[in-house]
Structure formats: C-alpha cells, structure tokens
Amino acid sequence: MSIPERAIHKKQCMETKATEFIYAKRISKQQKFDKRLIAHIVVLAEQGVPRRDLIEQYGMANSTLQEWMNKYGSGKARQRSYTVSQKRSVCRSVESGMSVKQAQIAFGISCPSLIRRWIREFKEENTEISVTQSLEMARKTVNPPPDADIKALQKALEEANLKIQALDTMIDIAQDQLKIDIRKKSGARQSSK
Fold it and tell me: Which of 37, 64, 115, 133 is the most exposed, fewest CB within 10 Å of its CB?
C-alpha cells in the first residue's frame, strides 16, 4: 500500500469511527442482524479490520461474515492468508527486538492484533512441544527394559554384518571386472608419496 493509499485508508477508518450509529442489538442468537450493522461490519472488514476481531466483537459465525462479504461487499477486499513460515518470520522479528508496529509496517500486515495473536499461538505451541518432549524423555529414561536394549544391539549387529558382506561382494566384483587387487595383503607396505 503506497503512502497516499495509507492516508486514504486512515481517513476512512477515522470517518467510520466518527460516524457511530445506533442499531438494534440482538436479544438472542436466533434474531437477525440489523441491516445497518451488516453494512457497517462489511465496511470495517473491507477497511482491513481483522475478521476474527469482528466475529468476536459482534458475535457472528465466520461463515456468516463470509456470506455478507460475498453478498454486500465490493469484492475488492479479500482476506489475506499467511503461511506458517511467514507468521514465524514475523514472530521471530518481534522477538529479536522489532516492535509490533514496525513488523506490521515491514511485513504489510493490516492489524497489530494479528501479530500479537501469532506470537501467543507460537508461544503456546512451543510450550506444548517442550512439555510433551520432556514427558516422552522422562518415560524413555525411567523404565528402559533390558531386553529392548539387547534386541536393539543385536539388530544393529545384524545390520553391520550385512553391510560388511555387501561391501565384500562389491570389492570382489570390482576385482574381477577391473583385474586389480583391491584388498591389501597382510604385511604389505604402503607406498610413500
């Protein structure tokens, strides 16, 4: 978004906030939304307010908002989706010292609350991973059955023996085809180069 576009966007956001209107509040979830409120929510979504924030604030389903955007929206505003790697790079930037506002501008993200939510999610994810890994490590180290160790060592020995046999076979084939003695003879001297 260029600087003039940002100024227009900011002006529109301020105008929307300045023109607060009264609408009929819903008494129950079965009651329909006021048409003026629907128009207001669509305008907010098109101005870049995160859809999750609108859903939480006005108490609607994600599918309802999507339906309104398709039916009443201008079609210009599409919900931008971010890959996990993009989210992680933004979070790493903030953790390395960049402010949320700077990250918002640098990565072109519409709302700072989106970045804060990603940071919370990744912190929770990292916490869950560390907890599950420590529990798994504790289980593994607490009761290692002796039979399992012996079986693992026997399997490793069998694999090593198979590998040795395969290498011996390859050397034999190479000697036959190239007519060169590849194996060292015992007591043979190495040439000094």
Answer: 133
Please name the amino acid found at residue 193: K
Q: Copy the structure tokens of residue 163.
A: 């590998």
What residues have CB less than 8 Å from 99, skipping those under 6 apart? none
Three-state DSSP at 94 gives helix
- Give the Cα separation of 125 and 131 in Å (integer): 10
User: For helices 84-95 and 112-142, what crossing angle results, to 10°?
Assistant: 90
The domain spans of the chain are 3-72, 84-131, 145-181
Residue 107, both tokens: 């990565």
Sign of CA dihedral 116, 118, 121, 127: negative
If we measure between CA atoms, which residue out of 72, 80, 8, 9 comes closest to residue 40? Answer: 72
Residue 9 has pLDDT above 70, yes or no: no
Amino acid sitting at position 86: Q
pLDDT in tens, 102-160: 888 888 887 888 888 888 888 877 766 666 666 666 566 555 567 878 888 899 999 88
> Which of 37, 39, 42, 16 shows the shortest CA–CA distance to 26?
37
- Its pTM stands at 0.34
**Nearest CA-CA partner of 55 in 41, 35, 74, 69:** 41
